[in-house]
Amino acid sequence: MAIGKKVRRALVFLLVSINVVILGGCWDREEINDIAIVLGIGIDRVKNGNIRLTVEIAVPRVIGSGQMGGTGGDKEETIIRSGTGVTIADAIAQLQERLPRRLFWGHMKIVIFGEQAAKVGIREHLDFLIRHPQTRTRCNVFVGKGSAKSMLELIPPIEQSASEVLREMAESRTLMRKTAKETLQTLNSEAETVLLPMVKVLPPPKGKKEIETIPFIYSTAVFKKDRMIGQIDDYITRGVLWIRDEIKLAHVTARVPGERGNITSRMIRAHTDITPKHEKGRWKIIVNVTSEHDIILNGTKLDLLSERNIQRIETELEKDIKRRMRSALDQLQKDMKVDVFGFADAIHKKYPSRWRHLKKRWNDVFPDLPVELNITVKVRRPGMNFPPQGVPEQEVKE
Amino acid sequence: MENEKITSVQMMMLLYPAITATAILLVPGVTAQHAQQDMWLSPIWASLIGFLTVHITVQLYRLYPKKTPIEYSVDIAGPFFGKFIGLLLLFFYFHVTAIIIREYGEFVVGNFLFRTPIDFVMGAMVFVCAVAVRSGIAVLGRLAQILVPVVILLLTIIVILVFPDIELENMFPMFENGLLPSIMGAATPQSWFSECFLMAFLLPHVIDENHGRRWGNIAVVSIMLTLFFTNLATLFVFGNITASFVYPVISVVRYISIADFLEHVEVVVMALWVVGVFLKISVFYYALVTGLARWLNLSQYEPLVFSVGLLLCLLSNWSANDLVELTHFLGTTGSFYLSFVQTVIPLFLLLVAKWRNRAASPQPAVSHQERK
User: Fold this and answer.
1) ipTM here
2) Which domains does chain B have, with CATH numbers?
3) Does residue A21 lie in a domain region?
4) Cβ–Cβ below 8 Å for B121 and A181
5) Residues A323, A292 share a domain
6) Number of neighbouring beta carbons within 10 Å of residue B214
7) What is the C-alpha separation between B362 and B372, in angstroms, rounded?
8) For residue B117, which residues of chain A lie inside 8 Å, CB to CB?
9) Does the structure show a pLDDT above 70 at B184?
């Protein structure tokens, strides 16, 4: 009897084990060697309004073994394929024809829109990316100067793929960073504007092949609704980032009146509050910035041990930050007339009932909206030295 | 059938997944459509129905100890109407269980197993649940005691992992159009809370039945907190686009990325979430099968389990044409359907019972309560 029981148990166990083998993934079983892992995609608009989709696909064997074998170099770590169609989904169908493996979207890190595609509108493409059950809403979105394909084709010297380069660049937050989710959120916000980082190809150093370089973020594309209407340079972008409370990295250089030389500080952290005010029937925006800095370069003869000098420096840094913000306001508010600063949302959040009336004439009100900038800079630390370096002691000003 | 015993803590652990498991799927999206940035408030309104249902259920149980609704409806409304109400409840649970199975199937097929036939996904789940239900309530209770703490821990971890991405601004403007949107948003979750009526089928098995009320209320509070925090986390991450997602919570989980390293956590979430749904379906399934056995005056319910399971598979297939129809049903008529059967009918039974007891002999009912 005991043996019979054991045999029965073994049989049951065997049956269950067999089930585990055949039921894994059911009809959706996909082996790792049957899928092509998409790292990044580029969306371009080509002739007769069609969409050209370019995908960068990881070649797993090469990436897995890496450069350790020492044979690397000639072998590319990613491959580029394109397909065209009326929509992205349509283009994917054509792309799939040209690939032996099934496209897998779970690791897609970046999306680049070609300039032409961005000017026509990106909503349809974003819809696909959000609706797809495999894609991540966290992927970074860019606009490529020229075609998106040319960015993905590059073979970067350090990172494994152009997609990885761009993702790292966006995450370093030197300029704009927008994930697909954030893009949709701003598109759905009260102002219906979007800012996306713009990338172009870094000219390769002499002696290198034309494609042995990287794409980099150099400016910012401005969208009204889902269409790109213009672009702002890095200086203006930083001004916008200060106002939007999205600045993460900033160096501020100022001159102190009456002194020769520059002082540069590094921002440690900053916080911006946008407060809308309604006074005597007129709207007004008050932007309060508090920012903490460390001095990283002192080209003047001022001794940083003196509280008076620090206060003078703080005042000048404040002026410089204000200038940046003001020039951003001048270009975007006065010239381009797009509310990328989040003023509309700030009013909506503070005065929801008044916003309902204001919303209809917001486009007329916004360009003439007075904006007050209050900036407080606190210099916390002078770096490793108090007095300026290389200056005789008697010349140092306290 | 009556010999199996669970503790009141196990009852709470069965009620918790019986409501939350599917309440974090379609419900947040439906809530967000009505309540928008006030969606975090809706579970709190909705929980009022939960407390009310627990109160009604416990009151009825005190009047008719050791009896389930199938039996005391006969005592209250007479043999004909009582049996009719019992049949109504059975048909209701039959339908609702099928809908839950369908929700599960739609979710798995829509998010993970795209090419797998939905009937297969649902059939596999029904089979597992059938085996669990056959094993009896004591087994279910112990299963819940082991699994539910893991599920709660997991939900807590998710909420913590979402922290780097939260945007408190998304909460404002609070109460833009008054409190009405958040109350409207509560319409769907309140029908989930009315499922607390399942307690009525579990209470006869609870050893420490005098703690039933306390643990029932603890279940409602913990469910309310779970929905509150998941809604809040979803709102903080997605803000104004929350309503556009079919399954906002899973989309939030997919968004999690800690230091570019901890990503793609939804697979773990899925694995444990399936556990929650397994418990949910089992509890409903158990209530249905034991209810049917009692209605037919059978001494055992086990022989019914597999045949009812087959019918459940069929009905879940018929319960909706597609996801749109299912969501529409749950967001509109379904809300009133669920709370009508599980809250309004028991309330009606309770009122009749009180009135009858008073008419017949006022003392016993009162003294019975005082003894507790």
Assistant:
1) 0.80
2) 8-366 (1.20.1740.10)
3) no
4) no
5) yes
6) 14
7) 17
8) 27
9) yes
